[in-house]
TrEMBL record:
Gene Ontology molecular function, alphabetical: delta(3)-delta(2)-enoyl-CoA isomerase activity
Cross-referenced SUPFAM superfamilies: ClpP/crotonase
Protein's name in the database: Delta(3)-Delta(2)-enoyl-CoA isomerase
Originating organism: Raphanus sativus (Radish)
Gene3D superfamilies per UniProt: 2-enoyl-CoA Hydratase, Chain A, domain 1
Length: 240
């Protein structure tokens, strides 16, 4: 389902297996638990990289699990459950006291793209993988924190229109042009992870105080943090 590996100051969170890495209550609970472990073990210089195995980074919520309830009402209730239970994942990443990097090995769709956008940096492959918000195509409205995430992480109205209103599947170079991802110059999953490890090592060398870093991050996204129930802590002990 997912694993957390610690390599010195680097935490590597990996969605495991070769499937679509869809989020259901069990998967979500595991991710929250592993992010809690990373937070508890964090020190100056810690950095988190999140990646996955196989063709997909994540294809979003487990709609098959929702539909297996046997009724439309049950499916809607299960979908709402996943939307609400995924919110703490986003909150945990925004509150994590270290820089975070998403290494997209493949497709990132719907909640999978939200997971990626919850990180400070995003790298994706040049040869494979798309970013895709499927809600307009499958007839689902946007959760409030999804919409807030898009508003604060995707900088132009044109880019937001392409992502949300056209259902466009956005490949690497275009995603860089839209300012959604930081790099798409990598020809394999291994190449993406290697590049993000290089970035992580540079960030780790800064030895920033994690709680200050998290506070500054939260101050950048006040609307999203308000929806998530997060508050930026004010620190008055500058390094002079």
């Amino acid at each position: 389902m997912c694993t957390l590996e610690k390599r010195g100051n680097l935490f590597l969170l990996t969605l495991t297996g070769d499937n679509e890495h869809r989020f259901n209550p069990d998967t979500i609970a595991t991710i929250i638990s592993l992010l809690g472990q990373a937070k508890s073990q964090a020190n100056r210089g810690s950095v988190l990289i999140t990646t996955a195995h196989g063709k997909f980074f994540s294809n979003g919520f487990d709609l098959a699990w929702a539909q297996s309830s046997g009724s439309l009402t049950g499916a809607a209730e299960r979908l709402h459950q996943m939307v609400e239970s995924f919110k703490p994942v986003v909150a945990a990443l925004l509150d994590l006291p270290m820089p975070t990097i998403a290494a997209l090995n493949g497709h990132a769709a719907a909640a999978g793209l939200m997971l990626a956008l919850s990180h400070d940096y995003i790298y994706m492959r040049r040869d494979r993988g798309v970013l895709y918000m499927s809600e307009v195509d499958i007839g689902l409205s946007m959760p409030d924190y999804f919409a807030a995430m898009v508003r604060c992480k995707i900088g132009t109205s044109a880019a937001r229109r392409e992502v949300l209103l056209s259902g466009k599947k956005i490949r690497g170079e275009e995603a860089v042009g839209f300012g959604i991802v930081d790099s798409a110059a990598h020809d394999s999953a291994e190449g993406v992870v290697e590049a993000t490890v290089g970035l992580a090592e540079k960030l780790s060398a800064k030895k920033w105080k994690g709680d200050v870093y998290a506070s500054i991050r939260k101050s950048l996204y006040p609307e999203l943090c308000e929806i998530l129930g997060l508050k930026a802590t004010v620190f008055a002990t500058p390094k002079l």
